[in-house]
Amino acid sequence: MSNRVNAGQTVPLKFKLMAGQNYISDLSAVLYLESANLPDCLRDRSGPPIDERGSSTVHYDSVENQFVINWKTNKRWANTCRRFILTLNDGSTHMLYFEFVK
After folding, report:
1. Nearest of 48, 86, 51, 83 to residue 100 by alpha carbon
2. The whole model's pTM is what?
3. What span, in angstroms and rounded, lies between the C-alpha atoms of 33 and 18?
4. I want to staple 7 with a disulfide (CB 3.0 to 4.6 A). Which of 26, 48, 59, 77 is the partner?
5. Which residue has the higher pLDDT, 46 or 22?
6. Per residue, what are the HEC states of 63-78?
7. Is 4 exposed, middle or buried (0-12, 13-18, 19+ CB in 10 A)?
8. Mean pLDDT estimate for the chain
């Protein structure tokens, strides 16, 4: 499954982290952000990360107890597919798939 978005738009990505019954709010929990071009669009999900990641900002919303990543995508990504990769400081990796349109 992929998310269809307009190339060049800012995509808000929201998630919560918990340790036991407590929310984690430390920004250092987000270790690394990147995106990878998927040359064969959504048919190939195993390739190594390549290309630029776009510009991203991360903040913690204490009202909603969630992290928010505002991923600023590139207009040049129109008619391509990309995988967004989030690595946390516990070593876990999480991926989202996007199809970019004009």
Report:
1. 83
2. 0.80
3. 20
4. 77
5. 22
6. CCCEEEEEEECCHHHC
7. exposed
8. 86
Secondary-structure class of domain 3-90 per CATH? mainly beta
Average pLDDT over residues 32-48: 69
DSSP class of residue 7 equals: T
Looking at residues 85-100, what average pLDDT do you find?
A: 93
Q: How many CB atoms lie within 10 A of CB 96?
A: 16
Report phi then psi at 15, rounded to 5: -160, 160
Three-state DSSP state, 52: coil
Which contacts (CB < 8 Å, 24+ apart) does range 25-30 have?
A: 25/60, 25/62, 25/65, 27/58, 27/59, 27/60, 27/67, 28/89, 29/67, 29/88, 29/89, 29/90, 30/58, 30/67, 30/69, 30/86, 30/88, 30/89
